């Protein structure tokens, strides 16, 4: 770690309260004190219609009944795309989205994706997966079809979520979340939506007086590792960026005066 990083970390750790840790305020204060201006990261979204040579490793063109099928894929990193109708799609690692060249607003998803759907009241946008059907006109939401329990989390607008096109569904609006298991016929709306269900897209975890055991469960699910801690009775508040798990653990240990073992 560089001298600058040491200084940054020391400053951050001075700005927590017992059992609570506001990383945003601490880092903002540090940057202001040192004259650091952070520019917003520019999103570069490749256009995926016609010949897409620039993203050849991410898109595959198939043919079914003489109709070209476009397959967008994310391998080991999050990938962003723009569909022909202007809809922006962010795919989680290992995920895949397929649509027909003739019907780009009718898509099939494998894995996890975040959608910012371009509004078109004449042509609804549809997503199907194994045990998932989502229909919208134009909105922002995430679909997790990566496990047996399927989830939808809405950040803006209105979404119809059902098990299949013919099944009874639920309407979700901003900050609502629902899930459906193979044994259920209708999605169940969550009493307390999990804001960290889209941490992979947002690039950060958000905790607000969250019990440490829940914090570690969130990190465990995201990074596919397990943890043990010397004291699980603490609570944590703050925003932690997803890029560096070891740094997150270091900050939590220092803020809460505990020891965490990653397994």
Which characteristics define this entry?
alpha+beta, 263 residues, two-stranded antiparallel ribbon, 14-stranded mixed sheet, Phage tail protein beta-alpha-beta fold, Jelly Rolls, 2 domains, 5 helices
Q: Give the CATH level 1 class of the largest domain.
A: Mainly Beta
The number of distinct helices, counting runs of at least 4 residues, comes to 5
Question: What is the CATH third-level topology name of the largest domain?
Answer: Jelly Rolls
Estimated structural class: alpha+beta
The tally of strands reads 20
Please tell me how large the radius of gyration is: 21 Å
When the domains are counted, the total is 2
Helix content: 10-25%
**Overall CATH architecture of the largest domain:** Sandwich
H/E element order: HEEHEEEEEEEEEEEEEEHEHEEHE
Assembly level? single chain
Give the rounded overall mean pLDDT: 82
First-residue to last-residue Cα separation: 23 Å
Low-confidence blocks of residues: 1-5, 10-19, 34-57
Beta-strand residue percentage? 35-45%
Largest sheet: 14 strands, mixed
Q: Assign an overall shape.
A: elongated
């Amino acid at each position: 770690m560089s001298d600058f990083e040491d200084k940054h970390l020391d400053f951050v750790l001075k700005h927590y309260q017992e059992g609570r840790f506001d990383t945003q305020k601490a880092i903002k204060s540090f940057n202001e004190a040192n004259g650091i201006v952070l520019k917003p990261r520019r999103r570069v979204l490749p256009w995926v219609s016609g010949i897409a040579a620039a993203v050849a490793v991410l898109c595959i063109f198939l043919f079914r009944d003489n109709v070209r099928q476009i397959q967008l894929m994310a391998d080991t990193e999050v990938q962003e795309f723009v569909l022909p109708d202007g809809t922006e799609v962010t795919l989680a690692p290992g995920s895949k989205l397929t649509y027909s060249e003739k019907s780009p607003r009718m898509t099939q998803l494998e894995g996890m994706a975040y959608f910012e759907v371009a509004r078109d009241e004449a042509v609804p946008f549809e997503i199907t997966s194994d045990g998932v059907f989502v229909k919208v006109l134009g909105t922002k939401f995430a679909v997790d079809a990566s496990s047996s329990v399927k989830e939808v989390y809405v950040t803006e607008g209105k979404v119809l979520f059902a098990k299949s096109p013919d099944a009874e569904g639920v309407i979700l609006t901003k900050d609502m979340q629902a899930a459906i298991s193979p044994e259920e016929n209708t999605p169940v709306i969550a009493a307390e939506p999990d804001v960290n269900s889209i941490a992979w897209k947002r690039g950060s975890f958000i905790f607000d007086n969250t019990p440490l055991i829940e914090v570690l469960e969130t990190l465990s699910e995201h990074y596919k590792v397990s943890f043990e801690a010397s004291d699980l009775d603490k609570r944590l508040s703050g925003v932690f960026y997803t890029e560096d798990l070891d740094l997150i653990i270091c900050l939590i240990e220092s803020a809460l005066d505990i020891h965490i073992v990653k397994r």
